[in-house]
Amino acid sequence: LSSIDASEAQSVPGFVCFVSAKDVPGSNTTGIANDETVFAKDVVTCVGHIIGAVVADTQEHSRRAAKAVKIKYEELKPIVTIQEAIEKQSFFKDIKRINKGDVKKGFEESDHILEGEMYLGGQEHFYLETHCTLAVPKGEDGEMELFVSTQNPMKTQEFAANALGVPSNRVVVRVKRMGGGFGGKETRNTILTSVVAVAAFKTGRAVRCMLDRDEDMLISGGRHPFLGRYKVGFMKNGKVKSLEVSYYSNGGNSVDLSHGVMDRALLHLDNSYNIPNVSSVGIVCKTNLPSNTAFRGFGGPQGMMIAECWMSDLARKCGLPPEEVRKLNLYHEGDTTHFNQKLEGFTLRRCWDECLSSSSYHARKKLIEEFNKQNRWKKRGISIIPTKFGISFTVPFLNQAGALVHVYTDGSVLLTHGGTEMGQGLHTKMIQVASRALGVPTSKIYISETSTNTVPNTSPTAASVSADINGMAVHNACQTILKRLEPIKQSNPNGSWEDWIKTAYESCVSLSATGFYRIPDVGYNFEKNEGKPFSYFSYGVACSEVEIDCLTGDHKNIRTDIVMDVGTSLNPAIDIGQIEGAFVQGIGLFTMEELRYSPEGNLYTRGPGMYKIPAFGDIPTEFYVSLLRDCPNSKAVYSSKAVGEPPLFLSASVFYAIKDAIYSARKDSGLTEAFRLDSPATPERIRSACVDIFTKMCPSAEPGTFKPWCVRV
């Protein structure tokens, strides 16, 4: 809208502040699927849609100038919720289906048929560092250097180059590290970066922009809210025969990665259960909210959560213990999934048995039953939940990675690969891989940063595969260097690493190598229901115990036991940390974090004052994590397995332990039938579900309606 004149601040860097829509959104503009503009043109499609940007000499000046901009709107009727989108048929194209077997025949053969639905709310990424970019123009040939907090240097480079009208080779993107990402910086940073790059190009000086927390939460989107409708047929013993399921997600105002999220949700609709007959459809709703995007799990947790919903109700209908019904339906080694991939190296049943044993599940269940008999307003519950998470990008060509290894004459090694570091320990693991491959201590190996001028065309650091693919690329580069050193080592077998490197240099042997790797034989066709979408699966089981207060709806996480198959761990300390972190983030998703909107789609919960993420007190008081032993994985570097996303869904064990405790409370009120509990299980929902004389005084909203201070999108 305005930019600082270059002559007014010769040595002052610029700061950008966004002007975003603050009123009622209108029809349609558009995401990363080339259906989205950087700035809104004529129509704003959500509250928070960026209209323009102000460049100034200081951050404070840019903010004051942005606030001074006045915009007149013609109000249009927005579509905010999934229900509204269904009524008005507001969907993005490319509806996906997975069908297997004869669903109709399966229902005919079933003893019981259960129908229902479940809603799952979205989730804010809440990375510690918000979206941030520093652009430094080089002053010749359109060169630009970008320091960006992004998981996706390649797309950031490509979008900035397109905006500047230069080839990608003039733009360098550098990522030292991020203060957290969780998927939120896979695509949504590209708009911010493109704006800052143009501002730097126009002014001829460095420009920086870092969003405030409230701006970041309003603009950048989060995890997709889901609505699942299901019909399941099963036998008296709890064996599932047939499943018909429809998934609806709230994609927001542009496609972004919504189709990929829905693909993974459909591929995980079975969680860990063998369902012989399946009919499923996944529909992405087009609404007037900021575009939702990738978030740790990428649709998998939503797909699996709805599976556990009907599995939980099914067990109640049969009058059988939930753990017995779940185990009865678990896959076996060699079984075929609903998307026709054979399960090899299926360790889930080992995880299940170990978790039952280490958690003393049956003994504690008896103690909980006794506790509940003696207490009317405090109830305890326990639940054990499995997970099976597919590892690979569902877009086949993204399953590739590159690496660059330099060895200097003093024997030190500079390592670069295509993955970005966001606190998950990827660089540490890559140094370990190089150390093991080259046979040198980790102290000799250093990773400076991730940059597009060292490793080009990188896939985003996402889908839990970064250690797998980048590790193999690093290993490949190291093998190239070792092969070159072979004659030198043979001529001086007792020499040191430094001796061999010095001799190689003096013998004019190259001490630099690139590495490359792609995951072989992955690719899936939805229309034919054939192919192999995943390279392998990560497995885990969690058992959680909770205590709820029936009068306030509050709950305490008493104990959690997790058994996780991570193959032969590259770094057990990092992997256990990832499991613990994912689990606690999942506790937020399923029990605490609730995004609240106005009927116009204006986000109320902008910041920690209104939006509650897990704190120290929400971590289970007793928290035990163990890694499954003797389960090497032949599909990844040094027999390891992916660990970033798979553990997150295990926190569903807390949700279903809460539901178990609510069943006990309802039983005291004379209610024994199944009931609906949507996610997250907030104190309000827990309190309302514990039906008693008090809840009858405060009737819930009628189905399909909502209160203006909390619209369920």
**CATH-derived architecture of the largest domain:** 2-Layer Sandwich
Class inferred from helices and paired strands: alpha+beta
The strand count comes to 22
Strand order of the largest sheet: 2-1-8-5-6-7-16
Radius of gyration: 27 Å
Spell out the CATH superfamily of the largest domain.
Aldehyde oxidase/xanthine dehydrogenase, molybdopterin binding domain
Percentage of residues in helical conformation? 25-40%
Task: Give the domain tally.
Answer: 3
Q: What is CATH's topology name of the largest domain? A: Aldehyde Oxidoreductase, domain 4
Taken from the alpha-carbon principal axes, the silhouette is globular
Cofactor: FAD; [2Fe-2S] cluster; Mo-molybdopterin
Protein name: XDH oxidase
Keywords: 2Fe-2S, FAD, Flavoprotein, Iron, Iron-sulfur, Metal-binding, Molybdenum, Oxidoreductase
Family: Belongs to the xanthine dehydrogenase family.
Protein topology:
Blueprint: E1 14-20, E2 50-56, H1 59-68, H2 82-87, E3 96-100, H3 103-109, E4 112-120, E5 132-137, E6 144-148, H4 153-164, E7 171-175, H5 189-203, E8 207-210, H6 213-219, E9 226-234, E10 240-252, H7 258-267, E11 277-286, H8 300-318, H9 322-329, H10 348-358, H11 361-374, E12 378-391, E13 400-407, E14 413-417, H12 426-438, E15 445-446, E16 450-451, H13 466-491, H14 497-506, E17 512-518, E18 523-525, E19 530-532, E20 536-549, E21 555-565, H15 572-592, E22 622-627, H16 652-668, H17 683-689
Parallel strand pairs: 1-8, 6-7, 10-11, 14-15, 21-22
Antiparallel strand pairs: 1-2, 3-11, 4-9, 5-6, 5-8, 7-16, 9-10, 12-20, 13-14, 13-17, 18-19, 20-21
